[in-house]
Design goal:
The chain is an alpha+beta fold and about 350 residues long. The protein has 13 helices and 8 strands. Strand 3 and strand 4 form a beta hairpin.
Length: about 350
């Protein structure tokens, strides 16, 4: 590729796959793969791998790579590693030893759980990452089909958080920020402007990723002439109460359930039907459109925070103490220590 926004070429990213058992789906991401504005980049590549059978995969990976990839948890065996993986956000992280100067961190998740998460937003961990551009290394029709719905939901969420007029930088920064809402790392290890850095460094990739979803909103979202930068798209959307209510109730049911609970729409016995609950949400939003941002922020935070905390704790053991300490120092250097 001649696109200078790519720090690493796809061919440079395949080396790790050659050392692992078969994966069903694989992507690479992060500042080592694509540009983030205001950040020179890292030499560590981040990967996500979706697999079919976690116990078998970990057992085989341990045979191949042992302590070069795993902490001492690897000694527990495939079944135990599968159980550890399934806690929290359903992800297991490894940080292999550097290979000929190449550094990597990879997340392993079962394909079935990934597909469910992309639809349901139970934790917004991997689904949040896939709302942003990634470099696909192994394609999978099931995952990519599920991610189309993930992208639609991310766009709808961003539209609900944005005013009637906004530009593409605001749109993609808002999308990038969804999975960081309530993430404890944003108060310490991550740079506070990370969503903006991700979005503004990859505008063309975001446009490509979200174009089909934007087209679906054509009747309520228009590109307008802007007075700013000539290449910066400006949008205007319908923000009428009825439109906000309809858009909100199309979000994943996990968001709607949490919003309904905040609005006291879920009965003690849980006897209210989903249809009645969602109709109640429509009525709340129709009568008070300004509540939408608070409902979204509270609902997303209540999903993200526990999952992120669980993964932080799990990562301390799966990375090992030395690697965890080095990783935290690196994050602090980008976050708190740079403020």
């Amino acid at each position: 590729r001649n696109d200078r926004r790519f720090v690493a070429m796809p061919g440079d990213l395949q080396w790790l796959l050659e050392r692992l058992p078969r994966v069903s789906y694989a992507v690479a991401y992060g500042s080592a793969v694509m540009k983030q504005k205001g950040y020179k980049g890292s030499n560590m590549v981040d990967y996500i791998f979706a697999i079919e059978n976690a116990a078998e995969w970990h057992a085989e990976n341990w045979k191949r790579n042992g302590l070069r990839h795993y902490s001492l948890l690897g000694l527990l065996g495939g079944e135990s590693l599968q159980n550890i993986q399934e806690t929290g956000a359903g992800v297991y992280f490894n940080v292999p030893y550097a290979d000929n100067g190449r550094k990597a961190k990879y997340a392993v998740i079962s394909k079935s759980r990934l597909c469910s998460e992309l639809h349901e937003w139970k934790n917004l961990y991997i689904s949040g990452r896939l709302q942003k551009p990634v470099q696909t290394l192994v394609h999978n029709e099931d995952v990519e089909s599920a991610n189309l719905q993930n992208l639609r939901n991310a766009l709808s969420t961003a539209l609900l958080l944005l005013p009637s007029k906004f530009d593409q930088n605001q749109l993609y920064t808002t999308i990038s920020a969804i999975s960081y809402t309530g993430d404890p790392r944003m108060g310490a290890g991550e740079h506070p402007d990370k969503p903006k850095q991700i979005a503004e460094g990859q505008i063309e990739r975001f446009q490509c990723l979200y174009q089909s979803s934007l087209d679906e909103h054509a009747g309520n979202l228009a590109v307008i002439q802007g007075s700013g930068h000539p290449t910066l798209l400006q949008f205007e959307q319908d923000v009428s109460p009825i439109r906000r209510a309809e858009l909100f109730t199309q979000l994943p049911q996990e968001i709607l359930d949490r919003a309904a609970k905040r609005c006291n729409l879920i009965s003690q016995a849980g006897s209210m039907t989903i249809e009645a609950q969602n109709e109640g949400l429509k009525n709340v939003i129709f009568s008070n459109p300004n509540i939408v941002k608070d409902l979204l922020h509270d609902s997303i935070s209540s999903i993200v925070t526990p999952a992120a905390k669980a993964q932080m704790i799990k990562g301390f053991f799966s990375f090992g103490f030395s690697t965890s300490f080095t990783y935290v120092l690196h994050k602090l250097s980008r976050g708190v220590l740079r403020r």
